[in-house]
Write a structure and sequence with these properties.
CATH topology of the largest domain: Fructose-1,6-Bisphosphatase, Chain A, domain 1
Strand content: 25-35%
Helix content: 25-40%
Order of helices and strands: HEEHEEEHEEEEEEHEHEHEHEH
Largest sheet: 8 strands, mixed
Strand order of the largest sheet: 4-3-5-6-7-8-9-10
CATH superfamily of the largest domain: Fructose-1,6-Bisphosphatase, subunit A, domain 1
Distance between the termini: 43 Å
CATH class of the largest domain: Alpha Beta
Radius of gyration: 18 Å
Number of helices: 8
Shape: globular
């Protein structure tokens, strides 16, 4: 198992890697004007670009060189668990936003050890902000400690509600109705990693999505948890294999949101 010094080294390197990958992707978009991105369609409204593949290759190859015993699971190239620990990476979370020039996308990198996420890094690439957390050490944005909001009631609450074509549209409508009836505002931004760090820094009061892949969520969930959020997520092995439901909330309204959002599925 990596010791304290080894985890610190990993965290330091991956902060740099995430920032470099995000900056390069942004530069690539700016120089092409959103054109010549080599778009490939993976499924309905699910895309991959040259920028995704280049970013994942850069991250994967560097981690393999520096930590050869670590496993790697990436959105674009897949992979396998490692003997010592596993990196779980989304090189551009929010690719559809990236393609259109919408400013909600970033790089997400998590390190899982013995079934627990111990490091999480999200680079909010359009703003060049780096969010990070180490298990038990709090959550940080550009060296400043962050925490969840102190919202205590639904009338002042606002959150981010994610949805994808992996789940029934009727379920999403039920959740919208439940939030509306409770007087809770919501937004949909198209990037779980960015939505989760917005929740962690107190900009919004919750993030919920019925199904997320592990590479979309693990880093952001750790950052939110270390910032003080209540978290509902699948067991790690199931999450990595199949994805699953994620809810992160500010503590005072956690129980109410679980009732509203999970209850809306019935």
């Amino acid at each position: 198992m990596p010791n304290d010094e080894a985890l610190t080294r990993r965290l330091h390197l991956v902060r740099i890697l995430a920032q470099e990958a995000g900056r390069e992707a942004l530069q690539f978009w700016n120089e092409s004007g959103g054109k010549a991105l080599g778009i490939e369609k993976k499924s309905t409204q699910d895309f991959v670009t040259i920028a995704d593949r280049q970013a994942e290759y850069r991250i994967k190859s560097t981690l393999a060189r520096e930590f050869p015993e670590d496993g790697f699971i990436g959105e674009e190239t897949g992979g396998a668990k490692g003997r010592r620990g596993t990196w779980v990476v989304d090189p551009i979370d929010g690719t559809a936003n990236y393609l259109r020039g919408l400013r909600h996308w970033g790089v997400s990198i998590a390190y899982v050890l013995d079934g627990v996420t111990v490091l999480g890094i999200v680079h909010d690439s359009p703003t060049d902000r780096i969010y990070s957390a180490r298990l038990g050490h709090g959550a940080w944005r550009d060296g400043e400690k962050i925490g969840v909001s102190n919202t205590t009631g639904p009338q002042m609450a606002m959150g981010i509600l994610g949805a994808s074509r992996r789940t029934p549209f009727a379920l999403y409508l039920n959740q919208l109705q439940a939030l509306f009836d409770a007087g809770i505002e919501h937004r949909k931004i198209g990037s779980a990693a960015i939505g989760l760090v917005r929740m962690a820094e107190g900009v919004v009061d919750f993030y919920y999505e019925k199904h997320l892949n592990s590479w979309d969520a693990l880093a952001g969930v750790l950052i939110a948890s270390e910032a003080g959020a209540g978290v509902v997520a699948p067991p790690m092995d199931d999450f990595i294999a199949n994805g699953g439901e994620v809810l992160c909330t500010t503590p005072a309204i956690s129980a109410q949101l679980q009732d509203l959002l999970v209850g809306a599925q019935r």
